Fold this protein.
Amino acid sequence: AQSVAQPEDQVNVAEGNPLTVKCTYSVSGNPYLFWYVQYPNRGLQFLLKYITGDNLVKGSYGFEAEFNKSQTSFHLKKPSALVSDSALYFCAVRDTQTGANNLFFGTGTRLTVIP
Amino acid sequence: EPEVTQTPSHQVTQMGQEVILRCVPISNHLYFYWYRQILGQKVEFLVSFYNNEISEKSEIFDDQFSVERPDGSNFTLKIRSTKLEDSAMYFCASRPGQGFSYNSPLHFGNGTRLTVT
């Protein structure tokens, strides 16, 4: 069975500081990993994905994420946080072995960037 | 940039009533999905739809739920007899088909907030 864990419900960071939002996963086969962001009263917006290749993937708005197979992690990072980055962030996984075409989401992490 | 659109943005209904949530996926997409989110919490998969039939569904998607693609553009979610616990934000999503790769991200609409009283 596939699962995604986002161990932090809330992350606070000062503007200009680096931010990290953590995600670990569990799948049967190789994972396809995604990060989405949700602003208030909006749908989920795609940020970035890892499919194969370079473990460091870059996405929208200056975000990046590092795939670590040994730690089964896919943490989201940004070198310098902006107040506008404040939102709800979701990690998601698709299990290639099961052939499921849906995404399985984590519980979300609320990021607050403090001016 | 093309978007997934959902109507209405907010639906209030009484317990036991039927509701239909509507979605217009991106026009060249072939896979369609419904997810729900309760109180800004976890996003839960309900159902996926491809080639005019359900391809996968979760345990949440019981006999009270159904989906339909009545024409070439709309994708609907029907709840036959709503319960209080059906109150949630319902998101429609779509993605391109096999030719655009299996790993393409889902594109989400802004959701319909369903309130069952």
Observations:
- The CA atoms of residues 28 and 98 of chain A lie 7 Å apart.
- Chain A touches chain B at residues 32, 34, 36, 41-46, 49, 51, 88, 90, 92, 94, 96, 100-108 (CB under 8 Å).
